Amino acid sequence: MSVRRFVLLALILLLGTAQAVEAREIKITTWNLGWHLSQAEAKDWIRDCSQPFALNPASGLFEPSTTGATKPGWELKWGRNAKIKWDIAVKPPCDVYQANFKIVPVTESAYQKRAQQLQNFIGTNLDPDIIAFQEVSGATAVREVLPNNGADYEICSFDNFKVQRLAIAWKRSLGTGSDCAVAAPLSVPDLAATDQVRPGLSVTLQIDGKPLRVMTVHLKSSCVSPLEDRGKLDGGGDACPILQRQVRPLEDWLETSSAGMPVVLMGDFNRNLSHEKNSIAKSAVRSDGSDPASSLSTGVLVRSLYGEVNDGAPASSALSHLEPQCPVNAVAKQLCERSKRELFDQDALKPLTRADSLGCRNPIGLDQMLVSISLSVPDPAIKVAIGRFGGTRPAGQGHPDPLLAISDHCPSMATLRF
User: Fold this and answer.
1) Which of 133, 145, 165, 248 has minimal Cβ neighbours within 10 Å of its Cβ?
2) Domain range for residue 245?
């Protein structure tokens, strides 16, 4: 080899090495914290759940009362249409924490301990550069559970709408953020206020002089899988028609935001995208068989949220779906892989909810991570086990305060090279 060719090759190798060094590894995480409140909000919630309620024969509702046959809110029967004078758009129901299907009354000390456990868990097990939260009441609630009380993070969130809100936090060392914006169309705003669902939330980060758009969502619940009758997106019921109406605004956001920059889209989709990918062909994505890359005609229903939103048109909007592995143990790993193609009931998922496994009540199938195909993902995404922190235990003799689960979801985590 001539000296000239040797020098040229060396320069090429050095340039490649320099470019590799310049690529930054960014750890991204999404986590639903399950009706999470700030300490001040939790204090008011605990007070309200502890107050006496009595049945008002005139209204047919249990209402706050100091007379008649009263019982505290912790002892009432809760549910989506509970006969209780209570607005769950403003504050969580009183049955958030349960043990053996019985409501566990919460104390302020227990809620403070939960916040500290969340801080420790996030710092020790996640240490995210970017983390998307669902079911949080706002920036204060998030800051209280981030390491060092969030001193090292910037937060994008909002305070209006309903109490199940969204937030995105990123390390200050990562770069600046701008355009923190609520994606209101995802809430289906033409519905009655009580029926409107959660909007999306996005922010643009400038990382080493390059933009990255991050979006978090928490889509309509109870329309989980096309493998079950009630989960057919083009079917009937109460939930699927609303989720159907969230597809177009989500696709609109993606196509607009991906122009000129890569995108990270993650959150609680309440939808098993793996089932859609593995069971619905491209020709069946829409009810009329039209190409999902074409404009969606009025009256045409979508059968696959993933197939419609991630149709690759325009090319900049194409996403990679990061399907997580569950490396906590061999059983969890196998169940996670099978669950991408099979429909499991709650009994089949029990091995994953155990304290010696993932530990969370909603271990798989709901939380999703998608990133622009231009982003390099060197390793598989993973589900991070919360183990014993996923269970709630009531107060007892010698333990005046209960132990509260840190969440009913497990976080999902991946690393990007940016």
Assistant:
1) 248
2) 23-43+105-417
